[in-house]
Design goal:
globular; Rossmann fold; single chain; four-stranded antiparallel beta sheet; six-stranded mixed beta sheet; alpha/beta; 246 residues
Length: 246
């Protein structure tokens, strides 16, 4: 598949056409080979994610949540089935094309923040722009400061991550995930290490992104958090066993 197709997929994602889902999984199966034999992590997943939607993915440890996340972000490839971004099948892209697609279209918020400890907060956000080279160089620092303002901690811009609380670091992680203005935001257990009040504030920050048309996918084991999403799916043994829409 050519880079031109990749660019076309980016335009579809950016435009968020209502005629088709932003990203979809079609009968996705993922099987891992382990010493004991083969292990089916996903068993025939069909899922469509629309623009401007907050989706929660719920399930116990080992249910397939992380594998599903890897499919949606192009980190891993299905054993069979298709992962479609617009008209582009992600599993057909080369590793380099997939990395470029992910850099332009997906922002990831990790449970343990993953901030570089020797860089300041604003430098952590700018680094994400440096890697993808989507934002012009002269605009990177002003954009990073604007994102920190958006998540309410601009005054912390020149501090190192260790000087911030867990909730503040998660806000930085959200700002970093938004650095390249991706249409898809994925959060892996984003409130798992936070107290209830801070977790609620972080959830509201993520929800606010849907008002600008971004699709936000939260992977969690917390059903109370999932209940606040627009839509929730429950995984068990690699299958979607329940779906709820608000």
């Amino acid at each position: 598949m050519t880079i031109a197709h990749l660019s076309g997929a980016s335009r579809i994602l950016a435009n968020g056409a209502k005629t088709e889902p932003l990203i979809s999984l079609r009968n996705v199966v993922k099987t891992y080979i382990v010493p004991a034999g083969s292990f089916p992590a996903l068993r025939g997943i069909d899922l469509e994610i629309d623009q401007g939607q907050l989706l929660a993915v719920v399930g116990k440890s080992g249910s397939g949540k992380s594998t599903l996340l890897n499919m949606l972000t192009g980190i891993d490839r299905p054993t069979s089935g298709a992962v479609m971004a617009g008209h582009t099948a992600l599993q057909m892209l080369s590793e380099g094309q997939t990395a470029r697609w992910r850099g332009r279209n997906v922002g990831i918020v990790f449970q343990f923040f993953q901030l570089l400890p020797t860089l300041t907060i604003v430098e952590n956000i700018m680094l994400a722009m440096d890697f993808c080279n989507v934002i012009p160089v002269r605009e990177r620092r002003p954009r990073a400061l604007g994102l920190l303002d958006q998540v309410g901690i601009r005054e912390q811009a020149n501090k190192l991550p260790a000087m911030l609380s867990g909730g503040q670091q998660q806000r930085v992680a959200i700002a970093r995930a938004l650095a390249n203005d991706p249409p898809i935001l994925v959060a892996d257990e984003p409130t798992g290490n936070l107290d209830t009040e801070t977790a609620s504030a972080v959830l509201q920050l993520l929800r606010a992104q849907t008002s600008s048309g971004k699709s936000v996918i939260i992977v969690t084991h917390d059903r109370d958090l999932a209940a606040q999403a627009d839509r929730a799916i429950t995984l068990a043994d690699g299958r979607i066993v329940e779906e709820r829409a608000s």
